Amino acid sequence: MSISDLFDSGFQKRNQDHFAAIVKIAMSDGVITDGEKAFLDRLARNLSISDNDYKEILKDYASHPINPPTSYDRRLERLYDLSRMVYVDHIEGSDEVIMLEKLGIGLGFTPDNVTYVIDKALKLVSKGVDSDTFIEEIKNMNR
What we know:
The chain is an all-alpha fold.
């Protein structure tokens, strides 16, 4: 096995775990809505998740760990994706928001400020900001 094979498999595993974390949010109410399905389909394409892996993750999403990125910007990118997934349901204060807070802690946000960060993230997503604006706004809330 070459080094590039190891990198590719590690990269793919992180993408699968990230995708599984988002599926956990979608499944927190026991149903994947049409809007969530469309988002998952787009995300699977963007993360290069194969059709077979997609089906396997849907069946066994709970077995995938949350692997936080080491870069703060990468964490914010993942938070952006997760926040958009929750926003698809248009339900605040739901089990999905609680799950998002848990995933936020898994991404490396502290329990002391995760509720504040998630609230801000959902407000930004509801305004339709792009990922660059989202990242800057979240960074600026700590200044």
